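> example.struct
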């Protein structure tokens, strides 16, 4: 196993990325102390991986020995990360994440658990280590496979790269479709709620749609197979980015070389999403009486083979 993580700290070039990470983490923490708004990382989530990936590509170009150096894999990885980041930036903008007063609703639950603001110390420790450092570390590490590839001997672009590329787009589409299905459902639901407030005698929505709105949460489309299909797509596409470290050394691959330090971020992100779902679903169970039934029949993140039958509600 190639977990030479500590060697990164002695690299004369990589130290600048570490400095950037620490500056961003401290800036984010100080910002939350000043504003008492803890969703700054939500705003930065799609942006920082693009920033770091362009940094890695720039250093690869600067250190390349000449035009014969093959940078096609690194350029492709930068493009894929940028496609992910730009799409998510649009999604976050559409949801209002970039409004100055936006704060994710899950922070309300976290603050209650820490009895904040009455008890400041424990919450600020959590805020510093989990939000400022750990979440930032995940974003810092998302494109880290690029650094691993450019600092080790790599094979030319090969068939495994193409296979990884195909799977990346499969998971990219799954995430995009899930986000769009959720957006359309929630938009229509709140539009129907506004209809009810106005006391309109006739709704533009069908009885089946109204039944879905009354349920409160989406159980159709990809959500019939996974309670969080967008998380499933996101997790898998970042493991695809990691998989490029394997295709880069395909000619000498062995079991031990399947694992290296650049998998840390994908691993942390997989765990983080599990924790995030726990917080989200505590809220959903309290809000929606039928959610427990849905929860018992549909996979949390990874899909189940049998789709949820909403007719049995």
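> example.seq
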């Amino acid at each position: 196993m190639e977990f030479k993580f500590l060697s990164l700290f002695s690299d004369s070039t990589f130290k600048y990325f570490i400095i950037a990470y620490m500056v961003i983490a401290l800036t984010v923490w100080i910002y939350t102390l000043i504003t008492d708004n803890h969703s700054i990382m939500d705003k930065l989530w799609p942006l920082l991986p693009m920033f770091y990936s362009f940094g890695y590509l720039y250093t690869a170009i600067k250190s390349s020995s000449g035009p014969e150096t093959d940078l096609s894999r690194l350029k492709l990885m930068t493009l894929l990360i940028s496609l992910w980041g730009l799409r998510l930036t649009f999604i976050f903008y559409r949801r209002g994440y970039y409004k100055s007063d936006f704060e994710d609703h899950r922070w309300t639950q976290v603050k209650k658990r820490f009895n904040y603001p009455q008890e400041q110390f424990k919450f600020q420790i959590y805020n510093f280590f989990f939000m400022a450092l750990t979440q930032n570390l995940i974003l810092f590490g998302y494109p880290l496979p690029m650094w691993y590839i450019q600092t080790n001997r790599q094979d030319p672009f090969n068939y495994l790269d193409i296979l990884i590329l195909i799977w990346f787009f499969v998971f990219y589409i799954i995430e995009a479709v899930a986000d769009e299905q959720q957006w359309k459902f929630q938009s229509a639901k709140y539009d129907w709620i506004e209809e009810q407030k106005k006391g309109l005698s006739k709704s533009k929505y069908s009885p089946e749609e109204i039944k879905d709105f009354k349920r409160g949460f989406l159980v159709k489309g990809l959500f019939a197979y996974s309670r969080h299909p967008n998380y499933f797509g996101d997790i898998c596409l970042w493991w695809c980015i990691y998989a490029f470290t394997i295709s880069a050394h395909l000619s000498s691959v062995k079991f031990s070389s399947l694992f290296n330090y650049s998998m840390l971020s994908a691993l942390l992100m997989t765990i983080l999403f599990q924790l995030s779902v726990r917080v989200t679903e505590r809220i959903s169970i309290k809000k929606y009486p039928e959610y427990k039934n849905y929860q018992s029949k549909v996979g949390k993140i990874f899909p189940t083979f049998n789709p949820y039958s909403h007719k049995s509600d």
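> remarks
The chain has twelve helices and no strands.
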